[in-house]
Amino acid sequence: MRTGIATVCLSGTLKEKMQACAIAGFDGIEIFEQDLVTSPLSPEDVRKMAADLGLGLDLYQPFRDFDSVSEDILQENLRRADAKFRLMSRLGMDTILVCTNVGTATIDDDDLRAEQLSRLAQLAGEHGVKVAYEALAWGKYVNDYEHAHRLVDTVDHPNLGTCLDSFHILSRDWDTAPIEAIKPEKIFFVQVADAPKLSMDVLSWSRHYRVFPGEGQFELAKFMGHVARAGYSGPVSLEVFNDVFRQSDVERTAVDAMRSLIWLEEQSAKWLDAASLVPAGAGGDSTANAAGRRRYPMELATLPKVAEPAGFNFAEVKTDEPAQLETLLGQLGFEFDGRHRTKDVQLWSMGQARVIINEQAPSHSEPAIAALGFDVDSPVIASARAQQLKAPVVPRKVQADEEVFQGIAAPDSTEIFLCQGSPDGTAAWTREFGEGLEHPSAGAQAVIDHVNLAQPWQHFDEAVLFYTSALALEPQPFAEVPSPSGLVRSQVMQTSDRAVRLVLNLAPVIQQEAGQQGSGARKSYQEHIAFAVDDLVATARAAKARGLDFLRIPANYYEDLDARFALDPAFLATLKELNLLYDRDANGEFLHFYTATVGSVFFEMVERRGGYDGYGAPNAPVRHAVQYDSLHAHHVQR
Amino acid sequence: MRTGIATVCLSGTLKEKMQACAIAGFDGIEIFEQDLVTSPLSPEDVRKMAADLGLGLDLYQPFRDFDSVSEDILQENLRRADAKFRLMSRLGMDTILVCTNVGTATIDDDDLRAEQLSRLAQLAGEHGVKVAYEALAWGKYVNDYEHAHRLVDTVDHPNLGTCLDSFHILSRDWDTAPIEAIKPEKIFFVQVADAPKLSMDVLSWSRHYRVFPGEGQFELAKFMGHVARAGYSGPVSLEVFNDVFRQSDVERTAVDAMRSLIWLEEQSAKWLDAASLVPAGAGGDSTANAAGRRRYPMELATLPKVAEPAGFNFAEVKTDEPAQLETLLGQLGFEFDGRHRTKDVQLWSMGQARVIINEQAPSHSEPAIAALGFDVDSPVIASARAQQLKAPVVPRKVQADEEVFQGIAAPDSTEIFLCQGSPDGTAAWTREFGEGLEHPSAGAQAVIDHVNLAQPWQHFDEAVLFYTSALALEPQPFAEVPSPSGLVRSQVMQTSDRAVRLVLNLAPVIQQEAGQQGSGARKSYQEHIAFAVDDLVATARAAKARGLDFLRIPANYYEDLDARFALDPAFLATLKELNLLYDRDANGEFLHFYTATVGSVFFEMVERRGGYDGYGAPNAPVRHAVQYDSLHAHHVQR
Q1: Pairing of strands A406-409, A393-394
Q2: Which residues of chain A have pLDDT under 70?
Q3: Does the CA dihedral A326-A329-A335-A339 come out positive or negative?
Q4: Looking at domain A311-432+444-509+521-637, which of 3.40.50.2300, 3.30.1850.10, 3.10.180.10, 2.60.120.620 is its CATH number?
Q5: Separation between Cα atoms, residue B531 and residue B450, nearest integer Å
Q6: What's the pLDDT score for residue B442?
Q7: Can the peptide bond before residue A508 be classed as cis, meaning omega within 30 degrees of 0?
Q8: Residues 179-208, chain A, touching B (beta carbon < 8 A)
Q9: Tens digits of per-residue pLDDT, B69-98?
Q10: CA distances (Å), origin A55, targets A19, A46, A103, A163
Q11: Which of A73, A102, A196, B611 has its CA 20 to 30 A from that of B372?
Q12: Which chain A residue lies closest to B87 (C-alpha atoms)?
């Protein structure tokens, strides 16, 4: 699949954008006109630079408001087109995007439109230019790709074809199956964009909220499957207008974009495989290969395959001041399994829940979640997949005889280790710890239930795609939780069996009033690891007996809980006594408590009763408010 | 008018919110339930604290999903209500908001609803509680205030009344005139919120985009006029869900909120005055007073009246390194009018365009726009108005015989001075400058055309209300301009005669990748002062002859300009030679150029031909790109 991206997706100058696209490995780019107009580079400079960078200049865009106009405006438009065709020749470009008229269209007549497009195609032909005609979702008279293509068919000129843009098609819920009926030589260009399902006017939705494939909710693999079955094999190019990407680091965004196309390519191949198992519709020129898959002119590369992870292998907290953390884990019921034989690292466990305290941190580093281990079938295959998806590799020093961890860096720079799981939930690498230490008898049982990571606002969408594509987690619909410092966007990523639950939280941007400094940036939103136990009340009682500093829940909460659920008074008294939180839904019940925060980390203990599948979302505002209060009190003390 | 605000409008804890509301001068507050539930304060603590702060506890809210349910759910809901009524008694509160059912309603039957509301009213009566019933705009069966009120009328119980919320009414475009037909004793509460006109689902619009009155586009004065004519005299309380306010400094937001109510009060009185001049509809219990104004139970305080400013009096740039600025002004054609007789301040002028260079700045302060002077009829009255609108006063040291400037601080901390205008455009205070200096002969003529100020994202809406209410500027629809570091939101505020044009720009949040520091925060978006002249080409030629460092416009821009406008080749060559930008619309033409940036300031020279009323918006991306390039090059050099 030939990969492309429109320069409008990225921040920076045209030069910076082109360099970032080359580094990310795109085959070609679309030049968004404004990026050229505002650039000090001459068309010839751009042409040379693209050649030097190995980037194709695949599409010049957009040319607006051409058709459905009176003859005098048409003359003006043809003059304008002529100027752009001459410019394209200097750029060495041969394809231009012409979108359906929004602003100046006054005549709704397909015959007239076809005649006007025919004149444009003829002019284009004289310049060796191909016109890719695209139906905007909000085009005044033409806003449906089938309508646009009927015009292309009517004109029947070799220099006029169709441009298919997934946003304009899927935002309007147009049926994508008829794409297969379009002759491949008449599809001049394909643009892809994903988007969250929002109910707002389609123009604002398009201009601000598009995201890269895999970061939204459109059925893009199906769209691409139909495109492949039509026989198209040209560029598949991202055109994503997004307020955040426009502000973010250009090189990172370009890599995120490339990852989305690599992932889409795989998903499209999968969709085609699945579709080939059922009787095909009016397909393109395809032939079945040995494996039953049909072959299409568009080559769709595949990736190393991974199944979803079987569970968390470990969580790692980094600090050079581990004392408080050790105390907290001990009070929760974790056992100290000793130090690593060569590294300055401790292991603590409670059944299959393993926490590593990594003391190899710069001085005065308060505890922070640094790494997560996941159980996968094959760490090498999973790592190969992640690397093909452009995940940065994390180097980990190992000694002879030690397990080699395959590590990659998540967008928030948390290190993700791909570990060899075992059916009994143990981990071979734990043998490297506690030499000479008598291993304690098996104590309380627990597993890591979920981990909650704070995401910088620039990298939230990127993180969703990262965990979807590299780790095979499935994004759930997001929620918004009120906190005293703003709404917190919360996005659950999980496996189908819920063995892995990862919560990505986008915390509010910190206010920086005069006199405040930004050192608390990470602190302002804390991260946590939650452990599931069978009997939370007993766990809490034991922890209390060991002196644990619980997050203190206000009395008002328990009154409200009683008003909502009419709880048994003795049970309510127990909840209140132990600072436990409670939630209930149609499927079951949820009990949980939080510890105080150390550095930017705190812990949660949970008990799931019945089929309860949530995270106690109604209780999140209480947690946020109490944590805000403690943090604030702490600051005032200082 | 009794002023109120819901705690959900503000950031922080319940305690912080209550303190901020008291400081801002609110009469009472609505307690949003979650703020109480998450608070360590007991209901009795809250009651005492409110009493100590002199804050009424006017409304407990919300109680959701009560009506239109089956009998078993109703029983549960009555039990829930009973718990809340008992809680309210501990708080010393007597009014609760019950909103129409969204989540659990299954039976659409007004008779049943009336019966269920009647049972609620009876229970409320036993607790001495008044139920204010509100139609949510997205209520399942009841989403229209007239429908909700018909139910209140049917039940006819002293403990059941209506709550009117401007958002729920105006977002659905319900007619507000029928409010006047509601008996005043049946209106238990009035909530106000403004909002920008957005086309999106009403729930998301309500939960994220409400703003304070004067910051949006709803006809709130009319809404309030109908409420007053109905004879209502209870609290008028802000209920504004806004993502930014939730993150902003609580005390500033509370003051912004209070300002909006003071302004709304005045606007409502004005609407009533205007409405009393035409035959009234079915009005409430009103009597005409001597001035023709009708009297209503709700007392609407007025403010000192101001007309819109007649023009800019001066602009002030602060720096302790004035050399580059002096050079730039001289090259533009400004004349040096001397130093102030007692202060370390210079005056430069070009006709009526006056620029003060204030050297009383901390060391190493690069030039930045510090103050703007506006010509008003009466500085004292304008200052009194601004102060009643909670604008902070700016102290300005003066010596005997010097003009006393009335100064207030804008939300972005720019100092706004209210000056005595003169019909001939001169300013008396200029006599304080240039003692002993021979005044140069009158040179080139210019006026300040517009000033462009960057606004921090937390204070953008606040700034719109500030300039609307304190300075009588009129907000125009906002635009969004692409720049290499993100979209820039641009909001024009102007007088009806365009003598004052102020542009508020909300720049993208700066990306803070690892290794970057935030010192460039102000720099990242520059501010400027634009001067209008009669002959821009001549001005530019003269400036070029004096060696001015123009912002250099790329050649590609002129090619595109020609493609768009088919300009006369000689004219196009002149534009290109002098780095002039050009725009044209149906009313006229616009020529302009920019200087290089000094500190965070640059200058623009413009010529308006015919009725051109814009700012060359199509050229803004070019300016942003070239400035970004220079800034970037500058950083790399360092």
Answers
A1: antiparallel
A2: 278-294, 397-400, 436, 438-442, 509-524, 633-638
A3: negative
A4: 3.10.180.10
A5: 7
A6: 66
A7: no
A8: 198-201, 204
A9: 999 999 999 999 999 999 999 999 999 999
A10: 9, 11, 33, 21
A11: B611
A12: A559
- Residue A104, pLDDT score: 96
Q: How far is B57 from chain A (nearest CA, A)?
A: 17
Burial of B396 per CB tally in 10 Å (0-12, 13-18, 19+): middle
**Angle of helix B379-388 versus helix B460-471 axis, rounded to 10:** 140
Task: Enumerate the residues of chain B whose CB falls inside 8 A of the CB of residue A76.
Answer: 566
Calculate what percentage of chain A has a pLDDT beyond 70: 92
What is the model's pLDDT at position B435? Answer: 79
> CB of B175 within 8 A of CB of B276?
no
Q: How confident is the model at residue B416 (pLDDT cuts 50, 70, 90)?
A: very high
Cα separation of B70 and B116, whole Å? 10
Q: In terms of C-beta density within 10 A (0-12 exposed, 13-18 middle, 19 or more buried), how is residue A374 classed?
A: buried
CA distance to A357, B116, B530, per residue, from B583 (Å): 63, 64, 16
Q: Do domains B2-295 and B311-507+520-637 have the same CATH topology?
A: no
- Whose tokens are 């190019």? That residue is A237
The per-residue pLDDT for B349 is: 95
Long-range contacts of A109-114 (CB under 8 A, 24+ apart): A109/A68, A110/A150, A110/A151, A110/A154, A112/A68, A113/A67, A113/A68, A113/A141, A113/A142, A113/A151, A114/A151, A114/A154, A114/A155
Rg over CA atoms, chain B: 29
Structure tokens at A124: 């284009």
User: At what angle are helices A460-471 and A379-388 packed, to 10 degrees?
Assistant: 140
| Cβ contact, residue pair A509, B513, below 8 Å | no
CATH number of the B2-295 domain: 3.20.20.150
Task: Write the residue in A41, A79, A511 that is nearest to B458 by C-beta.
Answer: A511
- A511 vs B248: CB contact, 8 Å cut-off? yes
Question: Rounded distance, CA A415 to CA A413, Å?
Answer: 6
Q: Can you give the pLDDT at residue B364?
A: 84
- How far, in Å, are A107, A150, B124 from residue A147 at the CA level? 16, 5, 61
Query: What is d(CA A322, CA B574) in angstroms, rounded to the nearest whole number?
Result: 70
CB neighbour list of residue B124: distance below 8 Å, 6 or more residues apart: B81, B85, B96, B130, B131, B159, B160
β-bridge mates for residue A295, sequence order: A287
Contact A199 B204 (CB under 8 A): yes
* A87 contact B CB<8A: yes
Whether the upstream peptide bond of residue A322 has omega within 30° of 0, thus cis, is: no
B626 touches chain A (CB under 8 A): yes
- The span from the CA of A464 to the CA of A498, in Å, is 17
Q: Under a CB-based contact definition with an 8 Å cutoff, are residues A581 and A592 in contact?
A: yes
Helix axes A145-155, A110-127, angle to 10 degrees: 60
Please state the CATH superfamily assignment of the domain spanning residues B311-507+520-637 in this structure: 2,3-Dihydroxybiphenyl 1,2-Dioxygenase, domain 1 (3.10.180.10)
Angle among Cα A394, A398, A403 to the nearest 5 degrees reads: 95
pLDDT of the residue at A508: 76
Query: Residue A555 is nearest to which of B42, B201, B457, comparing CB atoms?
Result: B42
DSSP string, B516-571: --GGGTTTTS-EEEEEE-S-HHHHHHHHHHTT--BPPPPHHHHHHHHHHH---HHH
Contact yes or no for A629 and B13 at CB 8 A: yes
pLDDT value of residue A279: 53
Tokens of B473: 């500027």
Verdict on whether the full-model pTM lies above 0.95: no
Q: Where are the domains of chain A?
A: 2-295, 311-432+444-509+521-637
**Separation CA A317–CA A328 (nearest Å):** 13
